[in-house]
Amino acid sequence: MTGDMSAVVAQLLELRERLAATAVIAMRAKADAEHGHDQYAEAARGTTHPRLQQAMADMRIVGDKSARIARLLNKARDHVTAYLNRIAPGAVRDGGSHAGAMPTGEQLLADAERRANAKASVGSFLRRAVKNVENIQDSTKTATELGETGVKILRSPSGPKGAQSTSTTTPSSATTVSRPKMDVPEAAAQIAVLGIMTAVAIHKTSQVLGRTIARWRNR
Amino acid sequence: MNVNEVKRTIRSGNEAAAQAKTTLGQVADEATTTLDLAQLTLQGSHDDDVVAALKIIKGLDGEVDRAIRRAEAAIEHANAYLAAIG
Predict the structure, then answer these.
(1) Which residues 178-197 of A have a C-beta within 8 angstroms of B?
(2) Under 8 Å between Cβ of B42 and A13
(3) Are A59 and B17 in contact (CB < 8 Å)?
(4) What are A76-97's pLDDT values in tens digits?
(5) A79, A115, A119, A128: which to substitute to probe chain B, counting the most B Cβ within 10 Å?
(6) How sure is the predictor about A123, in pLDDT bands with cuts at 50, 70 and 90?
(7) pLDDT at A217 over 50
(8) What is the dihedral of CA A47, A53, A59, A62, to 10 degrees?
(9) CA distance A195 to A125
């Protein structure tokens, strides 16, 4: 690894986005929990049976905890933003810190959707890459294969008709899908993140597997 | 309103609780990936914000697990009431 700050900045920007997207998922869990609580509450009208009361209390706590997890994720994101603003002023384009305030659900959702659209191919590749590495023992061979696939995807990160294509000929594919154009910093971030995520997948397989198994056991 | 309808409402509550569990599982998976990315990227920095961010992200797994266990407890209680209804 070279001592280049651009990759670190790109990875930290990606980290911010992941924290925001995960906060959105946590808020969805909160909504699920509230719905569950309301259903129990509806059934409990006219009874004070302790088991039903307990079910309601538990679901209330699930909702509160989910909201707390979302707040923690946003707090971590604010810390990353503050650090980024110090080490690379201007790198955070959306103004960065929310001054302690939580981003609105719409902001987060828009962010997550934009992210999902722009990164569809790279994202699904990453998921597959991590899965493959978890499943396949021969990690050296896998790493090479992953690298080759990664390069292919990154050469045309927006799908068949790459935003970076300079060709003047009409693409032969008839099923060209229009996707959001990716700018250079974003592409750079994806390349950097792809590299680091592949490294994460290969070097931390055992930890990830161990944690996943432990979680299954606890459920 | 009859007993059957009450049962349906409680089961619908159970489904929502199960959905909350699944969604929280997604949060846990994302948190694991995020922690890996954060640790790999930020190793070597002792900045206060870095330390604080890593501390929060490290704690997420436990927070999520506790929430998931609460959802399971809710379903258990609701099922006990379903059994009591007969």
Answers:
(1) 193, 196-197
(2) no
(3) yes
(4) 999 999 999 999 998 998 754 4
(5) A79
(6) low
(7) yes
(8) 160
(9) 12
Q: How many helices (H) and strands (E) does chain A have?
A: 7, 0
A-to-B residue pairs, Cβ atoms closer than 8 angstroms: 182
Q: What local confidence, expressed as pLDDT, does residue B1 receive?
A: 76
pLDDT in tens, A176-201: 444 455 555 556 556 666 666 666 66
The half-sphere exposure of B83 on its side-chain side, counting CA atoms within 13 A, is 7
Amino acid occupying residue A17: E
Rounded average pLDDT over B28-57? 96
Residue spans of the domains in chain A: they are 5-115, 121-164+176-218
Is A218–B13 a contact, with Cβ atoms under 8 angstroms apart? Answer: no
Over range A88-114, report the average pLDDT: 62
Residue A145 near chain B (CB below 8 Å): no
> Does A28 touch chain B if contact means CB atoms closer than 8 Å?
yes
Instruction: Look up residue B38 and give its two tokens.
Output: 């954060």
Instruction: Give B 22-51 residues with CB within 8 A of chain A.
Output: 23-28, 30-34, 36-38, 40-42, 45, 47, 49-50
